[in-house]
Amino acid sequence: MKALLFPANLRDEQQRLLKNLGIDPGDSKALAASVKQLSDFYVKHPEKSTPWRESWAQVAYLIYYLPLNWWRACGVLRRGQQLNFFEGFDHYIDFGSGLGSVSHALDEMGIRFKSGLCLEQGREAISHHQALAKDSLTPLSWQSDGSIPVIKPKTLGIFSYSLTELQSLPNWVGQCDGLLIMEPSTRDDARRLQNLRSELMNGGWYVWGPCTHAEPCPMLLTGDRDWCHDRFVWEQPSWLKSVEDCLPMKNGTLPCAWMMFKKIPPAHQVPAMARVTGDLLEHKGYAKQLVCRGSSREFLSWQKKIFKRYPEVERGALVTINQDVVIKGDELRLSSADDLVVLK
Q1: Among residues 269, 292, 321, which one ends one of the domains?
Q2: What pTM was computed for the model?
């Protein structure tokens, strides 16, 4: 997402909150030390909640995880807008809302609701979120006691990097009209989400994205080597790069796994579409790229003798494929540029 810049109002508030925590927003090494400490915590305790009471955890989230998750959320929301997914919702519930990366991303994408309920047990996180969200387009409220929320009609349930801490979805999810789930792009988290897709569809939900079909997931049918995740290109700001330069982790692109569900079927499955689910793999004389349009594991295939240059189709892009394309094994062999149309 090259053209998307972290909002100036969030950046200003982020700096103010860091100063309140007693840290210099320009001290990249000190900021990176907090990020590394929280990263190590997540690696050692993947099932545990963020230790919000610790100042180093708050610092790490403000300077690093908030902006990264904001960019990821913006990428996913943009995919949802492409599918008209957000039409028909009046309210949302953000489970494990943290510092509000999703609510800020909804504002950036111009997606408004009549109300947003943020469920978060960390009171420090709530305090920071309230400060960051003072200009929110959607009226927000917060709940920290863990009680079951009142589900209004036309409610979207949102789980952003919070499902990984749960054994199963909360019971109140069944009263929602839609679900948006974003998870880390790790093999275990992504494949768990792919399995959850089957459970939800068996329970009457319809998958809207990233899947363009309702058939079994081909990545689950063909062993355990593949997992479905998206990747977003971004333009890293200098203030975040200076922190990352002091860290062992690098974020050239921003991957994540995501899925969207509604209780009504998607219109976009009527005209057959497919989604590119892999990166371009170049071989001697040809190149191929994983694509998903049903339960079979398939690749788009370009022969060098036909195509002087291989096309650059981004991972996650929606495409239409010529119905008469030649199929050889698991390859859809494209013979002209007209065989594949990338949908904007």
Answers
A1: 269
A2: 0.93
